[in-house]
Amino acid sequence: MIRTESVADVTEETFEEEVLGSALPVLVQFTADWCGPCRQLGPVLGEIARQEAGRIRVVQLDVDRNPGVTVRFGVMATPTLMVFRAGEPVKSMVGARPKRKLLQELEDVLAAA
Question: Looking at 7, 26, 38, 48, which residue is catalytic?
Fold first, then answer.
């Protein structure tokens, strides 16, 4: 799996606790080793994870190794970014984007945290 500093890996076994049970909102990147845009997004997510550490948690889930979670949340493309709050998905975005645009799209989530 693509490793990104400050971004934790979650699996089907840890998803419930790490994402759905988190006190903070969680941004999940549904990713895959073969996904070029996922690689581009890695450094952006790492920066956001460090910059917004007290307001949002950033994790990644490999779609090939964790098909159950991928199907459960209807993920059809990579990268898909999904924000979970209080155990529920509250926002979904598909495709890579620059940091500034992603932060704009996360403004409502970050403001509430």
Answer: 38
Q: What is the pLDDT of residues 13-37, one digit of tens each?
A: 999 999 999 999 999 999 999 999 9
- Cross-strand bridge partners of residue 88: 85
Q: Which candidate in 35, 44, 81, 102 is catalytic?
A: 35
Contacts made by residues 95-104, CB under 8 angstroms, sequence distance 24+: 95/37, 96/37, 96/38, 96/40, 96/41, 96/44, 97/41, 97/44, 98/44, 99/44, 99/47, 99/48, 102/44, 102/48, 103/48
Q: Any catalytic annotation for residue 96?
A: no
Please indicate, yes or no, whether the overall pTM of this predicted structure exceeds 0.90.
yes
